[in-house]
Amino acid sequence: MKKTMSVSFLVGMIISGIALYFAFRKVPFAELIAYLKSIDYFWTIPATLLILLAFALRVYRWRIILGATRRVGFWDAFHPLMIGFMLNCILPGRVGEISRPLILNQKTSVPFSTGLATVAAERAFDVVVLLLLLSWMLMDVKIDPALTITVGSYVLNKSLLMATATGIARLCFLLVAAMILLGFESCRNFFNRMILLLPRLFFFAGASFRQWVHEKVCLTLIRFMDSFAKGFLLLKDPKRMIGCFLLSLLIWGVSALSYYVMAMGAPGIRLSLAQLSVVMVIICVFISIPSAPGFWGIWEAGGVFALALFNIPAKDAAGFTLANHAFQMLPVILVGAGSAIMTGVNVFQISRVPQA
What we know:
With 356 residues, the chain is an all-alpha fold. It has 13 helices and two strands; from the N terminus they run ααααααββααααααα. The protein has a two-stranded antiparallel sheet.
C-alpha cells in the first residue's frame, strides 16, 4: 500500500506540474517571479490564522452533525478532519473524504458508514452556502461571455462556470433528497423491504444460493444503510440544522476574509471583501471539476478568470492566485501531517473500509 500511495503521490505531482504549466504558460516567468518577490508576506500570518480558524469552525460543525448520533471530543474530530483535508491536497481522487471516516472509526469506533454520512451532510451544507453565494454573485457581477481562460483541455468561461454550477446544484439536490429519505424510519423500512426481495430475482437458483444472497448481500446492505442513516439524524433536530447552517456561513465568511487579508500584501490587488468573495466562489466552482491533486492549475486558471472580471492584469492575477493557493494549502498540509504524527495514524495504511 505504501508503494501504491507513493506512486499515486508522484503521479499527482506530475499532473500538478503539467496543470501549472498550462495555467501559466502565457505569463512571462520572469515577471511572475518578480511579482511573487514583491508580495508583502507579513500578511500571510493573519491570513494563515484565519485559514486555521475556518478549519476549527469546520471541526465544531462536524461535531454538531456527529453529535446527533454520538458525542465526539474536539480533538477526536480535529485530527481526522485535518488528515483528510491534507490527503485531498496531496493525492488525487479526493481520498481524504473517505479517509476521514476511516480514521474517525479507528479512534472513536464511530461506524465508518455513519462517519461517511456525516461527511456527506457536511458537504451538503458547504454546497448550499456556495450556491447561495453564487446566486448573489450573479445578480451583482456581469461576466463577459467572451472572457476565456485555457488550462490544458479545459476552457474556462461563463458557459463552463454555469454548467458546473448547475451540476453542483443537481448533486446537492440529490444529496439532500437522500438525506431526507434515509433520515426517516418509514423510508428506510420501505428500502429494506425492497432489498429483502432481491433473493427472489434468483428464482432459477437453488435455495442455498438464495439464502446466501439473503445473508451476505441483503442483510449487509441493510446494516450499512441503517448505520449510514444515523449520520443524518440531525434532520430531526432543527437546532442542529440551524447551527450547522450558521456555522457554514461563518466558515465561508472567514475563508473570504483570508483572501482579503492576503490581498492586502499583494501589489495590484485592491479589491473589496465582496469582490474577493466573488473570486473565492468562482475558484470553488471551478475546482469542483476533476483536476490535479490540490487543484493545482485549475485553481490558478479560475483565479485569473475571476480577477479578470475586476480588470486585474494577468500577471498580477497569476502571481496573487498562485501565492494565495500555496498559503491556503500549506497550513492544511502541515497541520494534517502533525495530526497524523500525534495520533499515530499511518496514512499509507488507510486502505480497508471497516465493517459498518
